[in-house]
Design a protein that fits this description.
Length: about 1050
C-alpha cells in the first residue's frame, strides 16, 4: 500500500515516504543523540495554530517532511517504543493509516490522544508524561519556538514543571532536513524553475518596459506583479498547479541608493530609479509543495567602469563558492573561496563583501545549521541544497546625486550538491554581464576608418589557381599528394581524439509542440455560455464547439476536431458529421496524460435547416484552420533561442542605411510585396518596410557568417547572413536571411517595345544597365566597408565578424538540392546564394570530402561532404563537371581539407552509423584510410585482411548469392567477367573437336542475330557500353545505385 486516504478523500498520506523518513529520523536520532539531539530520550514537537503570516517553523517542517501536511495545534512525542499524537478527532482519523507502517518501519506503537472540543487537554498530557516516566530522563524540544495558543502554552508549562531534563533538538532537525531525498529534490527543482521563469519571463520584461517607456512605477507595484506571477504560474509560462505554489517571501525590488541585502528586506513605495549609473536589485523566492528556492539578480543601467568591474568580481566570487560545494569539503570552504577571489581580484571591495555566501534551503528558507560563513566547519554531502547568495553592500560612488552615492550588488542561485559538479537550478535566469547591463547613453567616439582587409587565405587561394602552368603540373600533383598524406594523419588523430571523448555528434534538440490536450476551452463550468437552444453552437472567443448531447451542451476545443462535413438526404434532412482526433497508440501524449480515459471518435447530428448546417460546418472549418495555423507558428517560435534586444542608434550616431532592398525569405500575407530599408544599429541590423508588421532584427552576436556578393554574371547584388540560431521572418523560421537588389530586369518583353531610332542596337541601353549595376555594387561595397569598420572596433572584436566575398574564379557547377547551381568557395565557407534554398557550408565543420564516381570516361562526378557531427546527414553535390575536378582538389588541398576519391557512391548513412556504434574499431582500422583507394589496392596485394572492416569492396562477396542477386543480371559486361568466362571456356574447349567448336560458334551468332560482326566490332561495342556505364568493372548493378 503506497498511499493512505482518509477524511473524505481530501488528504492522502504517502505511506512509502512516511516509512522511509521515519526510519531516517530514528536512525539519525540514535547516531547523533548526544551531539545534535541534546541527549534526549524523547522528542516533543508542538505545532502552533494556523497563521496567515509567512513564517518558517521546524515543527511545521517536520509535519510536512514526515506526513506531507502541516497539522496545526498538534503535539507529537517520539519515544523509542511509542509515538504519541495529541490532536483533534478529525486529525486523529487521518493519522490512523500510519499506525501499521510505523510498526513495520521502526517497531513503535502509535498512540492517539483525541482532544474533545472544549477540553483543554490537561488530562491527556498527564497520560503522555506518565507513559514516559520510567524510561525517559531528558525530553528534547525546539527551544526557539515560543508556544502559541492555549494548548501549546499549557503543554509548555506542564513540560517545564515535570521531572524531566529539557534539551534542544533544533540542531538534530536541521541536520536531518539537510539531506534531500529524490522527491524533495524534484520539489526544489520545480520551485527553482518557477522562480527563474518569473524572473526571466515576467520581472525582466516588465522592468525593461518601464525603462523603455520611462514610466514611473513603484517598487511595491512591481512586487505585486511578480507575486501574482508566482501564485499563477501560467503568467510565467510554467505548467505547475497553482494550489501547490506559494511565495517564500514578498518579491524584493530595490533601487535609488537604498539597499538591504537580507531576505527580510521589503519593497518600498519609492519609484524605480533607472537613471545613468543606477543599480536595480530584484529577488524572487518561490515554494513548491512547501519546498523553497531563491534567485536574485542585479541590473546595471549605464554602468561606469568601477561598477562593471565590481559586478564581474562578484560573479566570479559566486562561481568560486559554487565550485567549492562538493562532497567532502567543509561549508566554510565555499565562503573562503569567494572571499579569496575578491581579495585577489579587487582587494578594495573586501570590506563591502557580505559575511556569508548563503545558507541551506529546503522546507525552511534558511536552514540554520547550513550557513555558508567562515566559521561553519560542517561537511558538505551530496543532495544538500543551498541558496548561494553573495553581494557587495553600500559601495561608495563618486556622484553628487544622493541616489547614486552608494550602490549594492547581489547575486543568488539555488544549487544542488551532486557527486560531481554542483547543479545550478536557477540558471534559466541569466546573470552574465552582457544580459544584465543596459546601455542607453553610451557615446560613440569617432574612430579613423580602417583599411579594407582581404579575407584570410584569399590571396593564397587566388595564387594557387592563377600561377599554375603545364610544366609544373606533375610536381604540383606530387606536392598535393604529400600534403594530403599529412592531412590524413592529422585528421585521423583529431577524429580519434574526438570519438574517444564522446564527441560523435549532438542531438537535434527539437522541441515538442503543444498537444491538443494542453489546449483548454473553459477552465470551469461557470465559464460556459448560457444555452439558448439545443443546437450546435460555436464560441469563437474561446475556440470551442458546443454540441447538444443528452440534453446538455458539451464543449469541445476546436483543435480536437479532425474533420467536419455535412450531407443532405432525399427527405431534405441534413446530417452534420464530426470526426475527432483520438490517440492511436499508447505513447500518445493524451493517452498517457489521461490514463483509462474514453475518447469520443465521432458524432453525427440531424438538422432540418440546410442553411444552418452549412453555416455551422463552414464556421468550424474556418475556426479550426485559424487555430491550427496559430499553433503551428507557436510551435515554430517555441524552438527559437531568445535574442538580445536591438539597441537603436538613436542620437548616438546616424545608422548606416541601404534602401530599396528585397528580403528572402519573403514575408507572408496576400498583399503586394514591398521593398524595405536595411539599417545598421549599435548591436544589430534592422530591416523594415512601410508595413508596421514587416520588420526583422538580425543581431550581430547571432551572425555566424556574413557575405557580400556583387552582381557580375548574376542579376542581383546581395548581402547574406548565415545565423547561429533560427529567427522568424514573418511566420517562417530560418537560419539564412538575405537582402538584395535586382540590378536589371530579370524578365524582358521581346518585341513589346519599340527600339529607339537613335539606338537601334540598344548599345546605350546596355551601357545604362552596366552603370546601374556598377552603382548598386558601389553602394553595397560602401555599406560593407563601413560595417566592417564597426565590427573592427575593440568592443566587437569578440564577435570575429567580417563580410566574406565569394571567389568566382574557384566556382563550379553542381546540383546541391534539385536544380543545378553555381557553387562558389569563400575564405571560410562553400556557398550558393542566388538560388533558393541557399547553400552555406562552414569549412570548419567539415570532417572530410569524398569525391565519388571519379574515373576515366566519366563526364560528371559527385562531391560528398562529411561533417564533424556524425549524427548530421552528409551533403551531396551531384553532377559536377569532370573539368572542375582538378580545381576542386587544389582548393580543398589549399584549405587543408582531406579529400578521398572513389568509383562508387557510398551508403554514408550506414557508414556513419557503423562508426558511431563502434568508434574504437574505426580508430583501430586506420580511421578514414579505408577510403584511400591507392593504399587499399597496395595493401590488398600483401594481405586479404585489408579488404575487411570499413573499406567498401567492389568485389562480390564469396558467399552464395541471394535469389534477388541471381535473378538480376547486369546490362553491362565488365572486362573482369569477360576474362573469367574466357578462362572457363578454355578449360571446356580442351576436350572438344573443331567441328563442335564451329557448331557452337554458328549457333551463338544466330542467337545474337549478328553473324556479320567481327570479334573487333563486338569488343568495340562492349567498350562503348562500359564507357556509358557509371558502374565499376566488377559491379553487378544494372544502373548506378543511389546509396545516400
Amino acid at each position: 500500500m503506497a498511499n493512505g486516504t482518509a477524511a473524505g478523500d481530501l488528504y492522502t498520506i504517502n505511506l512509502e515516504n512516511f516509512s522511509a523518513r521515519l526510519k531516517s529520523l530514528y536512525s539519525h536520532w540514535t547516531r547523533n543523540k548526544s551531539e545534535l539531539w541534546g541527549s534526549a530520550e524523547a522528542l516533543a514537537i508542538a505545532t502552533p495554530p494556523h497563521s496567515e503570516d509567512l513564517r518558517y517553523l521546524k515543527s511545521s517542517a517536520l509535519n510536512i517532511w514526515l506526513l506531507g501536511y502541516e497539522f496545526p495545534e498538534t503535539i507529537m512525542v517520539f519515544t523509542k517504543k511509542q509515538i504519541h499524537f495529541l490532536c483533534s478527532a478529525k486529525k486523529a482519523s487521518l493519522l490512523e493509516v500510519v499506525k501499521k507502517p510505523a510498526k513495520e518501519a521502526v517497531g513503535v506503537e502509535l498512540v492517539m490522544h483525541v482532544k474533545a472540543k472544549g477540553d483543554d487537554g490537561n488530562s491527556l498530557m498527564d497520560t503522555i508524561f506518565r507513559s514516559m516516566k520510567d524510561s525517559v530522563k531528558t525530553v528534547g524540544h525546539i527551544a526557539k519556538e515560543a508556544p502559541e495558543g492555549k494548548l501549546l502554552e499549557l503543554w509548555s508549562e506542564i513540560l517545564k514543571n515535570a521531572e524531566f531534563e529539557i534539551g534542544d533538538i533544533s540542531g538534530g532537525l536541521s541536520d536531518l532536513f539537510a539531506f534531500k531525498d529524490k522527491g524533495e529534490i524534484i520539489n526544489v527543482k520545480k520551485a527553482a524553475y518557477l522562480s527563474a521563469s518569473v524572473m526571466q519571463s515576467v520581472v525582466v520584461p516588465n522592468m525593461e518596459n518601464v525603462i523603455d517607456e520611462e514610466k514611473k512605477v513603484t517598487h511595491s507595484s512591481l512586487m505585486e506583479e511578480a507575486e501574482k506571477a508566482i501564485m499563477d504560474p501560467t503568467k510565467a509560462k510554467v505548467k505547475l498547479k497553482a494550489d501547490n505554489v506559494d511565495i517564500c517571501y514578498p518579491p524584493i525590488f530595490q533601487s535609488g541608493g537604498e539597499f538591504d541585502l537580507r531576505p527580510s528586506a521589503q519593497s518600498n513605495d519609492e519609484h524605480l530609479y533607472y537613471d545613468s549609473e543606477s543599480v536595480i536589485i530584484c529577488a524572487i523566492g518561490a515554494r513548491y509543495a512547501s519546498y523553497c528556492a531563491n534567485v536574485a539578480r542585479t541590473f546595471l543601467i549605464d554602468a561606469n567602469t568601477l561598477q562593471s568591474k565590481a559586478y564581474g568580481v562578484l560573479l566570479k566570487a559566486q562561481e568560486a563558492a559554487i565550485k567549492a560545494l562538493v562532497p567532502g569539503n567543509k561549508l566554510n570552504a565555499a565562503y573562503q573561496a569567494a572571499l579569496s577571489l575578491v581579495e585577489k581580484e579587487a582587494p578594495e571591495l573586501v570590506q563591502y563583501f557580505t559575511k556569508s555566501a548563503g545558507t541551506g534551503i529546503g522546507l525552511e528558507f534558511r536552514e540554520s545549521g547550513l550557513n555558508l560563513n567562515a566559521k561553519n566547519d560542517k561537511v558538505v554531502k551530496a543532495n544538500m541544497v543551498f541558496n548561494v547568495s553573495v553581494g557587495f553592500q553600500n559601495i561608495p560612488n563618486e556622484n553628487k546625486n544622493p541616489k547614486k552615492q552608494k550602490y549594492s550588488l547581489l547575486i543568488a542561485d539555488t544549487v544542488i550538491v551532486t557527486e560531481k559538479i554542483p547543479e545550478i537550478c536557477t540558471q534559466k535566469s541569466t546573470k552574465a554581464i552582457k544580459d544584465v547591463a543596459y546601455q542607453f547613453n553610451e557615446d560613440v567616439e569617432d574612430r579613423p576608418a580602417a583599411k579594407v582587409r582581404v579575407p584570410a587565405g584569399q590571396e593564397a587561394l587566388m595564387s594557387k589557381t592563377t600561377l599554375r602552368s603545364d610544366n609544373q603540373e606533375a610536381s604540383k600533383e606530387e606536392l598535393r599528394r604529400q600534403h594530403q598524406q599529412e592531412l590524413a594523419r592529422a585528421k585521423n588523430e583529431e577524429t580519434a581524439r574526438r570519438l574517444a571523448g564522446g564527441g560523435s555528434g549532438a542531438g537535434d534538440g527539437r522541441a515538442s509542440s503543444r498537444s491538443s490536450s494542453d489546449l483548454v476551452a473553459y477552465k470551469n463550468v461557470n465559464d460556459l455560455p448560457p444555452p439558448r437552444e439545443l443546437k450546435i453552437q460555436i464560441d469563437q472567443k474561446n475556440e470551442a464547439v458546443l454540441l447538444p448531447i443528452y440534453g446538455s451542451m458539451v464543449p469541445f476545443h476546436v483543435s480536437t476536431i479532425r474533420t467536419v462535413s455535412s450531407q443532405q438526404d432525399t427527405n431534405r434532412n441534413c446530417y452534420i458529421r464530426i470526426i475527432f482526433n483520438i490517440p492511436t497508440n499508447p505513447q500518445d501524449a493524451s493517452s498517457s496524460k489521461y490514463q483509462g480515459a474514453i475518447f469520443l471518435k465521432e458524432a453525427s447530428f440531424r438538422s432540418k435547416d440546410p442553411m444552418h448546417s452549412s453555416q455551422v460546418v463552414q464556421v468550424i472549418k474556418t475556426l479550426r484552420r485559424q487555430v491550427m495555423a496559430r499553433e503551428s507558428e507557436r510551435a515554430e517560435r517555441a524552438t527559437l533561442v531568445t535574442q538580445d534586444r536591438l539597441q537603436l542608434a538613436g542620437n548616438r550616431f546616424k545608422p548606416l542605411r541601404l534602401t530599396d532592398l528585397w528580403i528572402r525569405p519573403v514575408f507572408g500575407g496576400r498583399g503586394r510585396k514591398l521593398s524595405g530599408t536595411l539599417e545598421a544599429h549599435f548591436n544589430g541590423f534592422r530591416y523594415s518596410t512601410s508595413r508596421a508588421d514587416e520588420r526583422v532584427d538580425v543581431m550581430f552576436a547571432n551572425i555566424k557568417h556574413a557575405f557580400f556578393q556583387p552582381a557580375e554574371k548574376e542579376m542581383i547584388t546581395l548581402l547574406h547572413f548565415h545565423l547561429h540560431n533560427h529567427i522568424m521572418v514573418g511566420n517562417k523560421k530560418t537560419k539564412d536571411v538575405q537582402f538584395y537588389v535586382e540590378v536589371m530586369d530579370v524578365v524582358q518583353t521581346l518585341g513589346g517595345a519599340k527600339r529607339s531610332a537613335y539606338d537601334p542596337d540598344e548599345i546605350e541601353e546596355e551601357q545604362r544597365e552596366r552603370d546601374r549595376k556598377n552603382k548598386v555594387n558601389m553602394d553595397f561595397q560602401s555599406f560593407v566597408n563601413r560595417v566592417n569598420d564597426i565590427w573592427g572596433q575593440p568592443t566587437m572584436k569578440d564577435l570575429d565578424l567580417e563580410f566574406d566575398v565569394p571567389l568566382r574564379e574557384l566556382g563550379f557547377h553542381g546540383v546541391p538540392y534539385k536544380a543545378s547551381a553555381f557553387i562558389v568557395p569563400t575564405s571560410s565557407c562553400l556557398v550558393e546564394l542566388v538560388e533558393n534554398p541557399f547553400l552555406v557550408v562552414s569549412l570548419g565543420e567539415i570532417e572530410i570530402v569524398n569525391l565519388e564516381r571519379v574515373g576515366l570516361g566519366q563526364k560528371n562526378f559527385d562531391m560528398t561532404i562529411v561533417f564533424k557531427d556524425f549524427k548530421r546527414d552528409v551533403l551531396r553535390i551531384d553532377s559536377i563537371p569532370s573539368s572542375s575536378l582538378d580545381g576542386i582538389k587544389e582548393w580543398l588541398d589549399t584549405t587543408d581539407i582531406k579529400y578521398y576519391e572513389s568509383r562508387l557512391n557510398l551508403n554514408w548513412r550506414q557508414i556513419l552509423k557503423t562508426i558511431t556504434d563502434d568508434p574504437q574499431s574505426f580508430i583501430d582500422d586506420g580511421g578514414w584510410e579505408f577510403l584511400n583507394l591507392e593504399a587499399s589496392d597496395s595493401d590488398s596485394e600483401k594481405s586479404e585482411e585489408s579488404d575487411q572492416g570499413y573499406e567498401p569492396s567492389d568485389a562480390e562477396p564469396e558467399s552464395e548469392p541471394s535469389e534477388e542477386d541471381s535473378d538480376s543480371e547486369s546490362l553491362v559486361e565488365s572486362d573482369d567477367e569477360e576474362e573469367e568466362e574466357s578462362d572457363e571456356d578454355s578449360e571446356e574447349e580442351k576436350g572438344k573437336t573443331w567441328e563442335e567448336l564451329e557448331r557452337e560458334a554458328s549457333n551463338a551468332d544466330k542467337e545474337k542475330g549478328d553473324d556479320s560482326d567481327s570479334e573487333e566490332d563486338r569488343k568495340r561495342r562492349k567498350m562503348k557500353a562500359f564507357g556509358k556505364s557509371r558502374a565499376p568493372p566488377s559491379s553487378s548493378f544494372s544502373k548506378r545505385p543511389k546509396m545516400r
